[in-house]
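Running co-folding for NAP.
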Amino acid sequence: MTQHGPTTGREWRLVSRPQGMPVPTDFELVEVEVPPPAAGEVLVRNLFLSVDPYMRGRMSEAKSYAAPYELGKVMYGGAVGEVVASTVDTHRVGDLVLHQQAWRDVAAGPAKEFKVVDRLVPPSQYLGALGMPGLTAYAGLLRVAGFQPGETVFVSGAAGAVGSLVGQLVKAHGGTAIGSAGSAEKVAWLTGELGFDAAFDYKAGPVADQLAAAAPDGIDVYFDNVGGEHLEAAIGALKVHGRAAICGMISAYNATTPPAAPRNLMQVVGKRLRIEGLLVWDHHDLEDEFLAEVGPMVADGRIVAQETVVDGLEHAVDAFLGLLVGSNTGKMVVRVEG
Ligand code: NAP
Ligand code: FER
């Protein structure tokens, strides 16, 4: 098997912990040496890197599910790449692999950390609709929120990677999908190509008023990607025995003071609401079912796996900063070779 591969690579390091919105000088792009793979290892040239909102949390020291990024070290994250050198039979040169060694162009390590995937869909979709965000949408909607056909679901961040999947899964499973997003163009895309029943621009007026207009009879499920005003509005709109799956609260990720609590939490009592947090890592047992159902729908276009592609490893930070201000529609990915 080929033992040749690149001997140098480039990687993005976190060099200071952001206060509020991250700035480009919090990061540094560095050239590094890449030794040939040792026994049991592979060498991979990354094709696409993922930038995800959770990375903002890793840039802070706050305690969470996973360790924070270390200062002066390369940041981790999802990537898809091609094997360029291998010492094992399970991974052949040319195989497409999914792994967690991102924010760099060349990855190396034990073969078991690199999952071989098929080429039935474009490689980057293993970072989005058929990857971590897709499984998040699937598990959050169907398991955590316990969505049933015929129900009305409100999803915030609806034009993003997770939210766009949530709305399309609601439609595929016979429900009513209502979404919010940050521009008129995104709203038009949601009600047009994606088939949402209603959508609104949360920047155009109070969320509670716009949600009440879109769902006059209330909602059964809220899929929260945003928190803050959106969560308060959703609590107000949820019907008796409604459920909220709390996936993320991106409106607070750059906050330097704690956000105001939803002021209407007492409604949880009267309406017997269930509000439950969601972490995708708890739901890997659903992965086969998810890929079996959603894979063919993505492959034949019944589910739109929209992406925003930023070209060039050197623009990975721009892509990440853009994600935090809504410059993506669908999944934000970085094509390593711009
Ligand atoms: P995404 O929605 O594709 O991208 C982030 C989007 O957030 C932006 O496009 C922007 O869209 C929106 N946004 C930014 N600031 C906002 C604000 N102040 N108010 C409202 N919207 C704002 O990202 P994603 O990967 O699909 O993630 C979506 C959410 O799911 C995030 O909260 C993330 O943390 C969470 N998540 C959780 C898990 C889990 O296991 N719990 C897994 C994956 C993702 P607009 O133009 O609409 O503002
Ligand atoms: C995310 C936001 C938060 C996410 C994970 C978390 C996988 C985890 C938070 C924690 O560990 O406290 O988008 O995506």
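Result summary
The pocket of NAP (ligand 1) is lined by residues 52-54, 133, 136, 157, 159-163, 181-183, 186, 225-226, 247-248, 250-251, 278-280, 323-324, 326, 328, 332 (CB under 6 Å).
The chain has two domains: 8-127+306-335, 132-281.
Job closed.
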